[in-house]
Amino acid sequence: MSNIFETLHFYFQYPYVRYAMIVGLLIALCSSLLGVTLVMKRFSFIGDGLSHVAFGAMAVATITGITNNMLIIMPITIISAVLLLRTGHNTKIKGDAAIAMISVGALALGYMLMNLAARSGSGHTTSNVTADVCSTLFGSTSILTLSITDVWICVAMSIVVVSVFLIFYNKIFAVTFDENFAKATGVRSDMYNLLIAVVIAVIIVIAMNFVGSLLISALIIFPALSAMRVFKSFRSVIICSVIISLICAGAGIIISILAGTPVGATIVIADIVVFFTFCLASFVLKRGK
């Protein structure tokens, strides 16, 4: 046990490891706040769809050589969130079909563009493109990749996300549980649905480089599902979801340091373990009644 603490103490002397912990906890906090709303509105896969859109935008930024890829990724992902919401209300294209359409299309387009760039020689070499694809889809294999700029961007975006959630908490609650009743009472539900979609897009862009575009939706969904196994009230589920997400993020980062495993995948596996633990706890509580 002492060797483990000594190893952690050694690694946390490096600023990059501290950066990873800060960013990981902030991403966990933001993703868990709105995860409950998405699960209850049966719109969980919006995170998956938007993460694939972000991958496509990343591919465009890579082959065009734009150094600050946020200039492309952020606006494209937000615009896609708006289009996804609008298309989902179309009677001919339901929400799940719209998500699948945009998700698969963006993923295929992004991978195609990166491979074409590698073949033509206008972008990275084939090996570098393959590494970029793996890193973007599954997150960085090393935690020593974050800069102080990344940390400050994440801090600023997290403050915005948490502030929006706290300011509009009552409206988000109303839209989550009964959108028709919320409309009848004068709540502009379309506007708040749009706000939720935009905030989710921001969270996905923040998290993509850290956990990978294929794993982001797991961070959004699993803590909410775990909390809902045991708690019933909206506020209790939110609080429990945040606590679960923070613990899993911190534990995942620490385990990845000690075991040398990919950060994103380790955090997601920790979330899965907690989910099954809460399922077991829910079963035991029901049997005890």
TrEMBL record:
It is found in: Cell membrane; Membrane. Its main location: membrane. One of its GO terms (cellular component) is ATP-binding cassette (ABC) transporter complex. Keywords: Membrane, Transmembrane, Transmembrane helix, Transport. Pfam families: ABC-3 (PF00950). It is a multi-pass membrane protein. Coiled coil: none annotated. One of its GO terms (biological process) is response to zinc ion. The keyword Ligase does not apply. The chain crosses the membrane at residues 20-40, 52-85, 97-118, 151-172, 192-225, 237-259, 265-285. The keyword Transcription regulation does not apply. InterPro entries: ABC_BtuC-like, ABC_TroCD. Belongs to the ABC-3 integral membrane protein family. PANTHER family: ABC-TRANSPORTER METAL-BINDING PROTEIN, METAL TRANSPORT SYSTEM MEMBRANE PROTEIN TM_0125-RELATED. This is ABC transporter. It comes from Ruminococcus flavefaciens 007c. The lineage of its organism: Bacteria, Bacillati, Bacillota, Clostridia, Eubacteriales.
